[in-house]
Specification:
This protein is α/β, with parallel strands linked by helices. The chain contains 17 helices and nine strands. Strands 3-4-2-1-5-8-7-9-6 form a nine-stranded mixed beta sheet, sandwiched between helices. α14 runs antiparallel to α15. The longest helix has about 35 residues.
């Protein structure tokens, strides 16, 4: 059995001293210095120049939008229908769960009834102290195994097993489970994520067609509770997820995809073991792992690839209140900063191809994007509050122009997204139009606030994997 903890001591970039290229220092330092310089302009200049930080924010965001539009352009054509591969790899599913008794049943049933069911469904129980044992016994006849042990197959569901662990966090639960899975492909699914019937088949086919594929993310859609707050957050997050997954498709076509969703992701098992598994010290173990896969490929001359699979669809229980949303984004952004810091030697480094020279420099700039955004909004509010409406008016015109650009892209991209994924539920044009207009003055500010909280989490190191309160799936099964 591979000792993944020992491998971490050798592989993890946080424990290996590597020289940081000058390009990395210039990109990160330049973004910070530019922010200071532009903010100072707010106190020294007159006219629209007082809002230089906002103009920089808009120019940068629009440039990223243009890149995405360029790379998703091929989606306007129908996707080719490919015949199933002759040989298809075995696939096992790991569900890392802590105190998820309320939703485990529906999650397991959704996996077991897939059109192309997995060879193994392993519940990696991270020290649950709720009704998980009673639930697994009542629904599937599983007897409680000892700590650190895996149960035999469930009497009525022979692919289902239960690995019972001491509480150590999601990454440790995944590492323990992956050593017991004997399938070529390992799928990680959160307990609050429900796969569409053909999703496992789409993932299995993707790995069968491309031997160099080592990691792939499915496409997620958020679901929230039925109350008003839940409907509002589902509305905004639905369109946010559309943009995010189209952006991942764009970076995939640039051979630079970094962001996969651990809530629904597939990995070639041997590749994960080769780089040391999931890092227990990471706030975002799925995102951090992809950096090490790319690093290992560059170090060893392998042509490993990372993909987003448009035919692999799932819905996931998303935050349905401001505080829950802020907590989620605090962890996401804090983990992003942590991973960026650990891998800062890759930024601007041509040894990593387009990932080093394009994607990671963009990510370095993204560390300060929410700071730019909130500062720009604060300056605008300050102008209005102090009665300088003549200065605020041209700024509002710039913002309206930006909204028009975003709206045009958004409405155009919805059609591409439907063609790519086959998903159309909840993606009507009317609500999309309203969301695009309202988002810059509401949801986007909340997202930036969560990112600022993420800076606090990163700088203090006070963040762990915690269970999110279920507002949609849990309500559906009660």
């Amino acid at each position: 059995m591979t000792l993944l903890a020992e491998t971490f001591r050798l592989q993890s970039p946080r424990l290996v001293a590597r020289p940081v290229p000058i390009a990395s220092r210039l990109i990160s330092g330049g973004a910070a210095l530019l922010f200071v310089a532009l903010t100072v302009q707010a106190f020294l200049r007159q006219g629209v120049g007082i809002w230089s930080v906002g103009i920089a924010y808009i120019v940068y965001d629009t440039a990223l939008l243009g890149f995405t539009a360029w790379k998703i352009w091929p989606l306007r054509h129908a996707q080719p229908t490919l015949s199933p591969p002759a040989t298809r790899p075995a696939l096992g599913v790991i569900v890392a769960a802590r105190n998820e008794a309320a939703v485990l049943g529906v999650t397991i049933d959704t996996l077991a009834t897939q059109q192309d069911a997995p060879e193994l469904i392993l519940i990696a129980d991270d020290g649950s102290d709720d009704d998980t044992p009673a639930t697994l016994a009542r629904l599937y006849g599983l007897a409680m195994p000892g700590l650190g042990e895996m149960s035999g197959p469930a009497p009525g569901q022979p692919t289902l097993r239960w690995l019972r662990l001491r509480h150590g966090g999601k990454a440790r639960a995944l590492n323990a489970a992956i050593q017991l899975v004997d399938t070529e492909i390992v799928l990680t699914v959160d307990a609050d994520t429900l796969l569409e019937p053909g999703s496992i088949a789409a993932m299995r086919d993707a790995f069968a067609r491309e031997p160099e594929l080592v990691a792939a993310t499915g496409v997620l859609a958020p679901i929230c509770g039925p109350h008003l707050s839940g409907r509002l957050f589902a509305w905004f997050q639905t369109y946010e997820y559309v943009r995010n997954f189209l952006s991942r498709y764009a970076w995939m076509r640039w051979d630079s995809l970094l962001l996969i969703s651990g809530a629904f992701a597939a990995f070639r098992r041997e590749a994960v073991i080769a780089v040391g598994g999931f890092d227990p010290e990471s706030m975002v173990e799925d995102y951090e792992l992809i950096h090490r896969l790319h690093r290992h490929a560059a170090d060893t001359g392998l042509d490993w690839t990372v993909r987003v699979v448009g035919g692999a669809l799932a819905s996931t229980d998303a935050p349905a209140s401001p505080l829950a949303f802020l907590r989620q984004r605090r962890r996401w952004f804090g983990g992003f900063l942590q991973t960026q810091h650990w891998n800062r030697d890759m930024v601007g480094n041509p040894r990593f191809g387009k990932l080093g020279t394009a994607m990671l420099p963009v990510k370095a700039l993204d560390t300060l994007q929410p700071v730019y955004g909130l500062t720009a909004f604060a300056i605008l509010i300050g102008l209005v509050a102090t009665g300088r409406f003549m200065l605020a008016l041209p700024i509002l015109i710039i913002m309206i122009a930006k909204i028009a650009i975003d709206l045009t892209f958004h409405l155009w991209s919805l059609g591409l997204y439907r063609r790519w994924t086959g998903q159309s539920e909840g993606l009507t044009l009317g609500p999309a139009l309203i969301a695009a207009i309202a988002e810059p003055f509401s949801f986007q500010l909340l997202r930036h606030a969560g990112a600022i909280w993420g800076w606090v989490a990163f700088l203090t190191g006070r963040e762990t994997w915690v269970r999110q309160q279920r507002t949609a799936i849990g309500a559906a099964v009660r």
